[in-house]
Amino acid sequence: MLTKDDAIDFVRSVLKIEDVEEKFKKDQYALLCSITKKYVHTEPFQNLTLLATKHEERHCPTLDEIQKDIYSTVGGLCFHHNVFMKYLLESLGYQVHFIACDIRFPGNHVAVLVKELIKPGDSYYVDVGCGYLIEQPISMQFDEKSQIYHQGFIRYQFVRKNGVIQRIQTIAKFRPVLQKEITKERNWFVFLEMTLEPRELDYFSEAMRKVYTVRNAHSGWFLNDIRMVHKAQGKLVALKNTTFFSENENNELVDTTLLSKNDLIKWVEKYTPQIAVSNINPAVTNIQLQFECGE
Question: What is the DSSP letter of 179?
């Protein structure tokens, strides 16, 4: 998918990180941290372009389509982001493979594992393609529980349980939570479960086909609602249909209602201007989105 020169060019020209080869030789972990943080501040997590696509034309994106959308910073869902990230890191010289995560349904989320990063045998979870943005690689070197991480409005932790690793985190109005997902120890919820077993890309084919084409199956919510998450001046901004979420200075999540389609257009123009507003009308029509002002 990417040559080494392609990867270096992307990191330099899109992520604005210079001296990539020198930084890789000096400190692979520090460079990885810079790449993941810059990436989530550059590439939006969004399904607007998917919703704007005619039903009969929807499909799991090809590698060429992924590369085009990421280079143009249009972004996409987890498959866009983490597939690109795996090949990017691999081309730079990292030891990396795909891992499968379950978010309510089997294998419907792709993530990345980087190995031998600081010392032999270590491994780090990388996930730049999630609505709950993670800016840093997460060490998997823990016995039962990882440290608690705090990023913006969420706190999260990784827990080993019954042969799998759970990502648990604080409950927020950002996403509805099922009763069975709530943990007993504290008022957190299980966001996903995973193993660190290496997976080939074709392992995800069927689950991703459903994500991109089948409403109300697996991750069918991406075909029912507009969902966009991005960073603006270091703070999270997000959109779910007509509700705009943003982090305030105290890292609290504040929500505002978009009253009209024009409000939605202004939101896209302000926070993700690289995404053509021409996607809005077909997306709104395809999910039959209603606004308070009746537009």
Answer: G
Smallest CA-to-CA distance from 134 within 109, 115, 164, 104 is with 109
pLDDT digits (tens, 9 = 90+) for 30-79: 999 999 999 999 999 999 999 999 999 999 999 999 999 999 999 999 99
Q: Is 18 exposed, middle or buried (0-12, 13-18, 19+ CB in 10 A)?
A: exposed
**What b/e sequence results for 122-144 when a residue is b if at least 16 CB atoms lie within 10 Å of its CB, and e otherwise?**
ebbbbbbbbbbbbbebbbbeeee
Sequence-separated (6 or more) residues with CB below 8 Å from residue 281: 261
Q: What is the pLDDT of residue 23?
A: 98
pTM above 0.85, yes or no: yes
How many other CB atoms sit within 10 Å of the CB of residue 57?
Answer: 7
Q: Are 227 and 240 in contact (CB under 8 A)?
A: yes
